[in-house]
Design brief:
It is a single chain. This protein has one domain: 2-Layer Sandwich (Nucleotidyltransferase, domain 5). It starts with a helix and ends in a 5-residue tail after the last helix. The longest helix is centred in the middle third of the chain and has 13 residues. Strand 1 and strand 2 form a beta hairpin. A five-stranded mixed beta sheet has the order 3-2-1-4-5. By secondary structure, it is α/β, with parallel strands linked by helices. The protein contains four helices and five strands, in the order αβββαβαβα. It is elongated, with a radius of gyration of 19 Å. Helix content is about 25%, strand content about 25%.
Length: about 160
Amino acid sequence: EVSVGTVAGIMAENGWAAKRMRAFKRTTIASDPDKVFEDLIGRDFTAEAPGTRLVGDITYLRTGEGWLYLATVIDLCTRMVVGWAMAEHMRASLVTGALTMARDRGHLSPNAIFHSDHGTQYTSRELGAWCVGNRVRQSMGAKGVCLLTGYSSCSLYETRW
């Protein structure tokens, strides 16, 4: 065992500095207010049939190599994660990847509702085109509301890896 002071001294002698990762990562970057979609869910986070009403969010995981972003798609009927994608970025392709997984595994009905926050990934042209091409209707909740599925999406995936 070595004291903190000893370690600090050795580091200073060698010109070393500790590298710290921020404990908080901003994942929702506000979008253009004109691109916000109507709230089709209306705070009713239930569904009569699987694949008809889905919610999505992006969270982050701290790893030994840096930050990893995780986009999920949750079915409001089954409460299952039916699609997910991970990457070192938070671009719209992360979200379309998660939705593509849900679609390819048969968890996306025609005219399904996909509900999200106001992040730029969810208002992007790329996601809009994907949704139109796959007959998915986009929905967004009130600005600044973190609750997507009755759980705080901020704490739903708080496990650190």
